[in-house]
Amino acid sequence: MAVNVLAMACLLMMLPNLGDAAISCSTVTNDIGGCATYLVNGGSPSGACCSGVKSLYGSTVSSRADRITACNCIKSLASNFGSSLKSSSVSGLPKACGVNLGYTISLSTNCAS
């Protein structure tokens, strides 16, 4: 779940736009909550997971502040999972859900860049 949010946050950060963040960590958590099983066990993400990933991407695509906030929320959630998260699932989540970020995401992503 946290990794999914991280992936989406990274995706959102690639588009430049400044301003105050309107997104909250509870929104991020709700959007990517369905991805926890995929991020820990691998396999294929559920439809609910991919819907959440796409929703999060759509909510943050036009605001750099929202992308940074979402990224930080995802990293915070990911820390709760510790080593149980599969790095390959984290980096592969956007593509598995049909979202093209144009770059690779990881748990070590710098949310400010």
Automatic annotation (TrEMBL):
**Keywords for this entry?**
Lipid-binding, Signal, Transport
The question of whether Isomerase is a record keyword is answered with no
- A Pfam family assignment: Tryp_alpha_amyl
Q: So which residues are the signal peptide here?
A: 1-21
Q: Which domain of life is it from?
A: Eukaryota
BP GO terms, sorted: lipid transport
Q: Which PANTHER family match?
A: NON-SPECIFIC LIPID-TRANSFER PROTEIN 2-RELATED
Q: Which family does it belong to?
A: Belongs to the plant LTP family.
The name under which this protein is listed is: Non-specific lipid-transfer protein
Species per Swiss-Prot/TrEMBL record: Ceratopteris richardii (Triangle waterfern)
